[in-house]
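Tokens for chain A. Residues wanted.
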């Protein structure tokens, strides 16, 4: 079923908000922190999906989304004294490419080595993009006083 693009974006944002907020609750975050995490995830994952929709490869899109999560987490730490780890894990976890990991396992199981390696490499690059984005955001962290 084809949806209007605006509706598709809205539904993606709602799904990102709910999933990251739920992860935050599972990680024993306060309701206020879970709300902030949900909003952050809706924005960052929305950015990632829009970039993929306009033609960017998934790994660089994941990098930019994780970079935005990391920078917002640093700003929240400065203004509200919220530890960055409390607001970076849940929005990042929802962007881990489980479908590519699953495809790799299925293709390996069926002996389709090239397809399996392609799925595994794509998964690895996306996870690497997420990790690199969060790491690069730490460069902007002000020095400890």
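Reply:
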């Amino acid at each position: 079923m084809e949806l209007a693009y605006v509706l598709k974006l809205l539904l993606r944002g709602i799904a990102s908000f709910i999933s990251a907020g739920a992860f935050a609750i599972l990680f024993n975050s306060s309701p206020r922190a879970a709300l902030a995490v949900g909003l952050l995830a809706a924005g960052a994952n929305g950015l990632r999906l829009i970039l993929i929709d306009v033609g960017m490869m998934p790994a660089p899109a994941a990098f930019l989304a994780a970079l935005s999560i990391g920078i917002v987490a640093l700003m929240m730490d400065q203004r509200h004294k919220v530890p960055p780890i409390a607001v970076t894990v849940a929005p990042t976890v929802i962007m881990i490419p489980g479908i590519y990991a699953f495809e790799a396992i299925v293709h390996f199981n069926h002996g389709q080595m090239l397809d399996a390696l392609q799925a595994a490499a794509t998964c690895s690059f996306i996870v690497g993009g997420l990790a690199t984005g969060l790491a690069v955001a730490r460069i902007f962290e002000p020095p400890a006083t």
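Helices lie at 5-26, 31-53, 58-80, 84-93, 98-109, 113-137. The two ends are 55 Å apart (CA to CA).
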